[in-house]
Amino acid sequence: MMPVGSLLTLLDDMTAILDDVWIMTKLSAKKTAGVLGDDLALNAEQAVGLSPDRELPVIWAVAKGSARNKAMLIPLALVLRALAPWLIQPLLMGGGLFLCYEGAEKLLHRFGPQAEHQPAEALRAEDKVAGSPWEKEKIAGAVRTDLILSAEIIALTLGLVAHLDFARVLLVLLVISLLMTVGVYGLVGLIVKLDDIGLALQKRRQAGLRTLGKVILATAPRMLALISWLGTVAIFCVGGGILVHGVAPLHHLVEELNAWLGLLAEGVTGLVAGFVALAVVKLLGRLKGRATP
């Protein structure tokens, strides 16, 4: 039987570990709040255009993909922290550039000369059904984006907990990953179901609740349209922010600006980098096409 003194010492050590984990988790949540906001906008944007009966299943599929991303990234981050910490920033910058590239491709598809002008109803009838290629690609794109955002969250958290021992670092990463995943996708699910919430409130007897339901129904479409645009903007802000923070002169320059100007600078950096990357990819594609007999 374990002596009482040893048991108390063990409980005291466990309490100290949990206190450290809780403190560092709160600090990490504050540090990654900006990424969380962008993550929320990006993932809510992915749900725009889905048929109502497919919204929650798609969000659930992306949430599972996000959990898999974090389950892969946490061990990888711990290995890199131990063996090659210098490699974390270049990998993040590569992910940030890819995010900017995807954002530029999305803008070109939406506004470019080759943009398709099919009626949205035809697309919904043909593609927006369970298991359709369109839906699978939407989920895959959201999971790819989440991979980069999750990597940034984990990298920022690693920077905060670098002084802690392995057990505390692992616990902080696990807790912040769980909180971010549940928080983001729970809020996304709530946002895309605002119209259903409004309809349910309209059926209540209380006049105040019925009025609230009417307000929600009137504003939900505009909110979803706004979220769609915010998601596109967030792509460039997140990607540009990663690139800016990886280049010391740019990082110091942006740090001297106020919050809004800094965010604007990161967004512009992401926009320019995205279209440069897109131009390079298209040029390489053309050169490859010419070289192929």
Give the topology, please.
Blueprint: H1 4-31, H2 33-46, H3 52-83, H4 88-111, H5 120-126, H6 133-160, H7 166-192, H8 194-202, H9 207-246, H10 248-255, H11 259-291
Helix pairs in contact: 1-6, 1-7, 2-6, 2-7, 2-9, 3-6, 3-7, 4-6, 4-9, 4-11, 6-7, 8-9, 9-11
Brief rundown of the structure:
The chain has helices spanning 4-31, 33-46, 52-83, 88-111, 120-126, 133-160, 166-192, 194-202, 207-246, 248-255, 259-291.
Question: Can you tell me about this structure?
Answer:
It is a single chain. With 293 residues, the chain is mainly alpha-helical. The protein has one domain (4-192, 206-291). Helix content is 85%, strand content 0%. The protein contains 11 helices and no strands. The protein has helices spanning 4-31, 33-46, 52-83, 88-111, 120-126, 133-160, 166-192, 194-202, 207-246, 248-255, 259-291. Helix 4 (88-111) crosses helix 11 (259-291) and helix 6 (133-160) packs antiparallel against helix 7 (166-192). The chain is globular, with a radius of gyration of 22 Å.
